[in-house]
Write a structure and sequence with these properties.
heterodimer; A: mainly alpha; MetI-like fold; 11 helices; 0% strand; B: 258 residues; alpha/beta; 6-stranded mixed β-sheet; 10 strands; globular
């Protein structure tokens, strides 16, 4: 009489289970294969020239068929440009996110800012480069420089920093803000001493992702820092180099030696981004509240 | 010395919705007052109007007067921050700051309000933790995160944090509802001790608790769904629980509704 009986899993069910399982694993493999093959290719081809010479020398006076030469000028340029871009975009991005979450509260201004941040996220990187070229270099008559490149990169970084910081601030429980207010702590101090430290780990991760994103940008640099084969440690005057530009420049040269340099340049770029990520993880771990437990 | 609180004709709103209406009462210094009543009748809202925490919620506002020792907390030019230093608050769920150690949590109110000497802060942290009956349990691990304590310990940590800034009045919004009976007992004992230094107001859903700890009890209720909450009756606790003057109060405390 009962309608419910204990049944064995039918063959059809088991078959379906297997099928879906296979599909899921397959999708995973398809997603990972390009990633691993890119890493593998870059490491395999890049190791050939990955030596001290490469890391400490520029391309000054290296002829088309000469072996040797390095990317020191490009590494220096990338580090300076990314640092400057971060110095510009991280404070602005952080403050914007704090306004949106803590003060704007869905008002008209904050909705407008939100909209424009979304629009900025979608800006193609070459447009950011063109904007700086048109505004900074051509209209204001400033020279090509590492700083102009940093300006273009900061345009690309800012929306990412705002969005990720906003998400992290929204995750901070309101209970903590109220607990702080109830102690007679003013709002700004609550934000500085309670809200930001609580969201710190997530904010650092978001900033690192933004840095990793812009560190590999080529198009905006081409239009703003120009090219050079020499070391220029001053980002405020004269053409500078960047690693993505270096890779682009070497890869289009017709000799194998140049191609090898391009691979090594790519490897160096990946290593720099990974190193930055590692540093961020360390900072996050060191500041994390769970550490003392 | 603690001070008297006088509330007169107080209304509180969330946007257009009137949550409580025409509340007037006097709360004497160094007493424990309990607010009881069904959920949604505005006990917590009223509690939050007493230290200007109500207005922290977007769209919330207050009309009426709250006098602390004769001075209107809602008077022109009164800074909410200074009100909250005088009138501390303990919340329903324990909410220690997760990034801070036990020591830093207790010192938070002092530190966040400006510089003080290390020895002075050390002393206040110790007396506050002793005052919250937590010192013996945590004295060897003051540097560990406050979030690592048990729920009952966390709540006592929050009490220590609130009394460290030396308020006149301590507001407690269902401080024991997330705690087990033993932790609840610890906090009730603590309230009896704190009474000598502070005026305590507690919101509770536990009528035995109200009967055990409080000197005076106010019964809140609302006329119907969507209507503002009001104080139906306020009297000595012994009287409210044995011989209430209102039928609604009697029905509520004997469990016939609510």
């Amino acid at each position: 009489m009962t309608t419910h009986t204990i049944r064995r899993v039918s063959a059809a069910r088991r078959l379906k289970d297997r099928l879906v399982q296979t599909l899921v694993y397959l999708a995973f493999a398809v997603a990972v294969i390009p990633l691993i093959s890119v890493l593998w290719l870059v490491i395999k081809n890049g190791l050939a020239r990955f030596d001290l010479d490469f890391l400490t020398h520029s391309m000054r006076g290296i002829g088309a068929r000469d072996v040797g030469g390095g990317a020191y000028h490009a590494i220096l340029g990338t580090l300076e440009q990314v640092l400057l871009a971060s110095l510009i975009s991280v404070p602005i991005g952080l403050l914007t996110a704090i306004y949106l979450v803590e003060y704007g509260r869905g008002g008209r201004l904050s909705r407008a800012i939100s909209f424009f941040v979304d629009v900025m996220t979608g800006i193609p990187s070459v447009v950011a480069g063109l904007f700086v070229l048109a505004f900074w270099v051509l209209a204001l008559g400033m020279p090509f420089s590492g700083f102009a490149g940093a300006l273009a990169l900061s345009i690309l970084m800012m929306p990412t920093v705002v969005r990720s910081t906003e998400e992290m601030l929204l995750l901070v429980p309101n209970d903590l803000r109220e607990a702080s207010y109830a102690l007679g702590v003013p709002k700004w101090r609550t934000i500085v001493k309670v809200v930001l430290p609580t969201a710190f780990t997530g904010i650092v991760t978001g900033v690192m992702l933004a840095i990793a994103r812009v560190a590999g940008e080529t198009a905006p640099l081409m239009l703003t820092v120009f090219f050079t084969d020499s070391i220029n440690s001053d980002p405020f005057s004269g053409p500078q180099m960047g690693l993505p530009l270096y890779v682009f420049d070497q890869a289009r040269r017709p000799t194998d030696i140049a191609i090898d340099r391009a691979w090594t340049g790519a490897l160096t770029l990946i290593l720099i981004v990974m190193l930055l990520n590692l540093v961020a993880r360390l900072i996050a771990w060191w500041r994390s509240p769970a550490r003392g437990r | 010395m603690s001070q008297q609180i006088q509330v007169s004709g107080l209304d509180a709103y969330y946007g257009r919705h009137k949550a409580i209406e025409d509340i007037s009462m006097t709360i004497e210094p160094n007493t424990i007052t309990a607010f009881i009543g069904p959920s949604g009748c505005g006990k917590s809202t009223f509690l939050r109007t007493l230290n200007r925490m109500h207005e922290v919620i977007p769209g919330a506002r207050v009309e009426g007067k709250v006098l602390l020792d004769g001075e209107d907390l809602y008077g022109p030019g009164v800074e909410p921050v200074s009100v909250r230093r005088m009138i501390g608050m303990v919340f329903q769920r324990p909410n220690p700051f997760p990034t801070m150690s036990i020591y830093e949590n207790v010192a938070a109110g002092l530190r966040l309000n400006g510089r003080r000497s290390k020895s002075e802060v050390d002393g206040i942290v110790e007396t506050s933790l002793k005052g919250a009956n937590l010192w013996n349990e945590v004295k060897d691990r003051l540097g560990k995160p406050g979030a690592g304590l048990s729920g009952g310990q966390q709540q006592r940590l929050c009490i220590a944090r609130a009394i460290a800034v030396r308020p006149e009045v301590l507001l407690m919004d269902e401080p024991c509802s997330a705690l087990d009976p033993i932790s609840t007992l610890a906090i009730e004992d603590l309230m009896a001790e704190l009474k000598s230094k502070f005026t305590i107001i507690i919101v509770t859903h536990n009528m035995q608790q109200a009967a055990r700890v409080s000197d005076r009890t106010a019964f809140f209720n609302l006329a119907g769904q969507g209507q503002p909450g009001r104080v139906i009756e306020m009297d000595d606790t012994s009287r409210i629980f044995t011989n209430p003057s209102q039928k609604a109060t009697e029905d509520y405390i004997t469990g016939r509704f609510g």
